[in-house]
Amino acid sequence: MNFFQHQEQARKQSRRMIVLFTLAVIAIVVAVNAVVYLVLGFSAAASENPGTPRVDIQVFATIGALLVIGLASAYRISSLRRGGAVIARQLGGTSVPATPREFAYQRLRNVVEEIAIASGVPVPEIFVLEDETAINAFAAGYTPADAAITVTRGCLDTLTREELQGVIAHEFSHVLNGDMRLNIRLMGVAFGILAIAVMGRVIMRGASRSRQRKGGSLILIGFGLLVVGYVGVFFARLIKASISRQREFLADASAVQFTRQTEGIAGALKKIGGLAAGSELTSHVCEEVAHMLFGDGVGYSALFATHPPLIQRIKRLQPGFDPSELAQIARAWRNPVRVGEVDDPDSSVAGFAPAGLREDKPGPKRAFDLPPASKEFKVAAGEVVAQVGRPDHVDYVTAASLNSSIAHPLREAAMDRERAMALVLALVLDPKPESQTIQQELLVQHLDHGTLAEVLHLHEQVEGLHPMQRLPLASLAFPTLRRLPRQQLQIFVTALDRLIAADGQVQFQEYCLAKLVAIQVIDALDPAATLVIGRLKLGQVKLDLGNLFSIVAAYGHDDVESARRAFLQGMNELGTQEAMSYAPPLDWALALDRALPRLNQLAPLAKELVVRGLTLAISADGLISVAEAELLRTVCAALHCPLPPILQRDR
Prior knowledge:
Elements: H1 3-46, H2 55-79, H3 84-90, E1 94-95, H4 103-119, E2 125-129, E3 137-140, E4 148-152, H5 153-158, H6 161-176, H7 179-208, H8 215-259, H9 263-274, H10 310-317, H11 325-332, E5 337-338, E6 352-353, E7 376-378, H12 381-387, H13 393-405, H14 408-414, H15 420-427, H16 433-446, H17 449-462, H18 467-482, H19 486-500, H20 508-525, H21 542-556, H22 560-574, H23 588-599, H24 604-618, E8 623-625, H25 626-638
Parallel strand pairs: 2-4
Antiparallel strand pairs: 1-2, 3-4, 5-6, 7-8
């Protein structure tokens, strides 16, 4: 199952969730009406004026129940609009700084950055639950642009780098597959159903203090609502569990595909089963996020379990697994020893190892030489599609090398709150003097002379960057940008838009990078409003497709005839009935400004065809240069179809 099929499945599961919860809400409303009818009917029969309970009271009960569920759900979802960091902080998460001093934090950040670069998505915010000794983790947020990855202190103290990589890869698969958005909606609707029980408790408490004659009836109504609410919670948990279990299997499989080995994630699962701390969290709010965790954080029974049985998960990864291994792991880690800040594959991220394992061992070799920017590689459209949102071990090694190859001063600028914005602006500054002069004037208008000076200083350093280093550097700067004040971010996005439309002469590559950063910043500003899984069909965006394919074909070929053939080859891949002509728009920047938001709203399987077609349009002869591959990655990322760093067939 590829990225687009996962997205389509996520959309179907969202519809299934809506149907199931709608049925649950209808059942709750009927039950609330039944409680009111029975209590009022009983009270009327016992009074001096017996009669049928009034219809207007039943209508009021129906409207009231719907309002309570709807408003409570809307409130809970609204409280999570600011992204995954909100959930991490609610559980007591400690933010990992951009330049951490603690060795374990630095290794954690390195792993997350490398996987983000390999996945082609922004580096998420990183948190650690310092008070949790169990092994667990979760990803939260609406989109990759506002995602947060959280791990427990137990992960750092007991998992090796390879095992932590498996856990983080598992969580990134939730980010890429659209699981996070569904998880937040599940939290919201379940909270709304719980509100019925809370309302019943409030009514009972208020009625017990009342001296009015109807106090007894109110107590009965409150008790009935309490029962109905908790019965609703019972079924809500069943729905959450059924949706969550299968997605955990898929995330485990994605982590194996990413790392190309089962030892990492299987080792983490074995330590959960073997060590006393397990995966259960102590936080009182962990029940609400149980379906988002890497392991069972609550200790549910099989009926409510949000995760498949642990042994079953391990055996899917390693069919020959012997459960007696868990006892061996428990004995080995009974009295761990501190080995310090060493790159030992058998020691934990925080520098602990089983007793008796003290010798240093060399870590895994990671090497990747950046190819010349003009070098061409063979690509196949089908294989590029298979790589969307599905990085593997080669991409991880490449990302680690790319991450370490970026000059230290540029890394410092990316993580500096005062310079991250200037760094991204420097990346999109046009190298042509005539265009750059206009851009400098615009920067002074929107920002100030000090920022302009910093942009020009950094531009001298980024001019020598390899094409493959530009997106990773922007990705490193993104967590810092996201922490800037909202007003400053809005000014930044406006400045980006003005820069890339300075005189109509901005280069296509600078335009795409600027547009991608702007899209990600907008995603982070209002994550709940971002449409990740669209519904448009190809026939509804014909003009936008024609413009995008014409521009990409013109960029990828030196002569008009070759570009026309590439355009037709790419458009034919879409399978649309109506033939379109190769016609690059004169104002291509304006055309793309209109096209990209519309194309981002395509249904997942339609986006799959677009990625196939774009690959053919830019490489009609089956060859693609490094610079063209980076352009394709940038365009696809703007459509929320992230590609890993290496696209060539011979990997």
